[in-house]
Amino acid sequence: xxxxxxxxxxxxxxxxxxxxxxxxxxxxxxxxxxxxxxxxxxxxxxxxxxxxxxxxxxxxxxxxxxxxxxxxxxxxxxxxxxxxxxxxxxxxxxxxx
Length: 97
Hints:
- The chain has one domain: Aminopeptidase, CATH 3.40.630.
- It contains 2 helices and 5 strands.
- It has helices at about 50-65, 75-80, and strands at about 5-10, 15-20, 20-30, 35-40, 70.
- The longest helix has 16 residues, at about 50-65.
- This is GNAT family N-acetyltransferase.
- InterPro entries: Acyl_CoA_acyltransferase, Gcn5-rel_NAT, GNAT_YJDJ.
- One of its GO terms (molecular function) is transferase activity.
């Protein structure tokens, strides 16, 4: 699925428009850490891989910024279980099992 994400610091989320719907991941940034707290994909778009694509794009941006990830969102944690190579961004001491 091709779409571009934008960081919206005013709303504290990464967001994108997909098929005329807003999808987003909310976050809290504190110093060099980013806490991903909630992923939102409308029901009509579920099951199309949009949530996973969104998480991937956000992780790429987090890595580019050199931030440390604290995955509080269950969907993001599930993605990290499926793609363990991204665990390199996760704050040491956080167990994703």
